[in-house]
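HUMAN: Now follow C-alpha cell order:
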Amino acid sequence: MASESSDLVKLANVSPDGKTLSLDEACHLVLRIGRLLLENGADTELAKTRVEALTAALGFEAQVFISSERVLLTVLSGRTFRTKVGAPIHAPGVNLGRLDALDTVARDIEQKRIDVAEAGRRIDALEKSPLLHPVWLVIPAVALTTACLARLFGAEWPVVAAAFFAGIVSMALRLAFGRRGVNPVAAAFATAFISALAGVLLMKAIPEAAPTLCLVAAGMILVPGVPLINSVSDMMNGHVVAGLARLATGSVTIIAIGFGLFLAAAAAGDVLPVSQDPDLLPIAEDFLFAGLAAFGYAMLFNVPMRSAWACVICGMASHGVRTALVTFGMDVAVATLPCAILAGGLARWFSVRLGAPWSTFAFPGVVAMIPGSYAFRAGVGALQIMREGANSSSALIAETLSLIISTGILTAAVGIGLVIVSAVPLRMGEKARNMR
C-alpha cells in the first residue's frame, strides 16, 4: 500500500528547474482549468473531456464529476485513490476570447509544449487580463445589436433609434454592475428596467410609434442565450443535473428581465402585449441586420477581432436562412433546427481555418434565434393571469401556454442543432488544429 500511495503522487511533468511537481499542484491546475472553462461559456461535456485529457497528459488516471457548483477529481492508482474538490464555480458568463486562450493552454499541456508551472503563470495572466475590446467599441456595438434586434422584429425606424439608445444604457449598466459584483439575476432585472424605461420615455417624443418592440429588444440583449443552449447540450450529453441547473438559472434570469420590462412599461403608462408576433423583414434586409447583430454579440462575448467576421457570416446564415424558410411557408420551429445545424457547420469550418474553438463562431451566430420575445410575453401573460385569477380569459391562458411551449421548443431546436454538429467526428483539419 505504501508503494501505491507513493506512485499516486509521482507525475511525469516537471518544472523548468527539474523539480517534480506534486499531485496537489497538478490537480489544482486541472481543476482550475475545468472551473474557468465552465465560467467562461463551455458546456459540461467540453469541460469534462478537457479535464480528462489533461489528467491523462500529466500521467495519472482520474475520474471527473462536474456539478453545478464544483468540479470533483478522483485520482486513481491501483487500490488507492484521492479525491480533490475544485473551487466554487461562479455565475457562468460568456467570454469566448478567454475560452479560446484556455483551450490553447490545455492543448499545450497535452502536447508537452509547456509544463504545469508555465501553464499556471499563463492562466494567472489570463484571469488578470482586461477585455480584448475597449469600452468605447463594445457599448455602441451592443447598442447596434439591440437596434438590429428591434428591426428584425419588424420595428419602424424611430423605434430602432430608441432601441439603440436603450442598448447604450443597457451595456453601460452591465459593465457597471459587473465591476461591482452585483448578483447576476438582480443585475439583469435592474438593467432591463432602467434601459427599457429609458427607451420608452424617449419614445414619448413620437406618440404615434408603439414602444413594444423597443421593450422587447432591450430585453433580448440581456437573455442568457449561451447558458440556455448549454443547458440543452448538457442534458443531451447525459449531464442532467448540470443542465437543469443552467436551465433553472436561465429561466429565473428571463423572468427577472420580463418583470423589469413589465414594470418599465407600467411606469411609462404603456403595455407589453401578450399576443403580438414579430413581422418578417424582407430576406435581404434580414441577412444584413442579422449579420450586424452577430457582430455586436461577438464584441459582447469578447471574441477576438480576427474572428468577428466569421461570427457575422454564421449569424447571417442562421437567422437569414430561417427567415427565408419561414417566408416560403415553413414553420418557425421546424426552420430553426436546420439553421442551427447550418450555423454550427460553418462554425466547425471556420474553426479549422482560423484555429479557434468552434463555439467562438457558433454562439454569436445562433443566439439571435433564442426566442426571448416569446419568453417575455409568456411572463407578461402569467402576470396577467395572476392578477385576473378566475376571471382570466381562455384566450389569454391559451396564448400564454403557447408562448411557453414555443420558447421551450425553439430553444431546444437551437441547442439540438449545435449538439448534432458537435457529434460529427473530427475531420483531419480539426484533428491537426487540436495537435498544434
